[in-house]
Write a structure and sequence with these properties.
The protein is mostly helical. It is built from five helices and no strands.
Length: 115
Amino acid sequence: MNMKNKPLPVIIVSILFILVGCVGFIYHLKDFNEPGNNMYEYLLILFLRILAVVCGVMLLKRINWARWLAIAWLVYHVVIGGLNSTSQMLIHIVFLAVVALLLFLPASSAWFQKK
């Protein structure tokens, strides 16, 4: 396999992380001026959205630690989802399993090996 061509699973996960990060960031901007807003919680949410975008970009740039960042980002959302509801937690567990599978397929793993 020519490693100059990004594997489709990496492209899919990268684009999803970039989209989720951008859409989430824009969505949460509306919370900025809400009265009674916990500014630290708000900034953490925005930081996590930016982190998703960074993760997606770094995956496309062949940075191996970005795979682990993607997994950690989803594990965090599994925990947060579990605090909200069982159904949210289960949905995030499914996303976590799919992303882990896609990022650690043999073709994906080969992509992240030394250039």
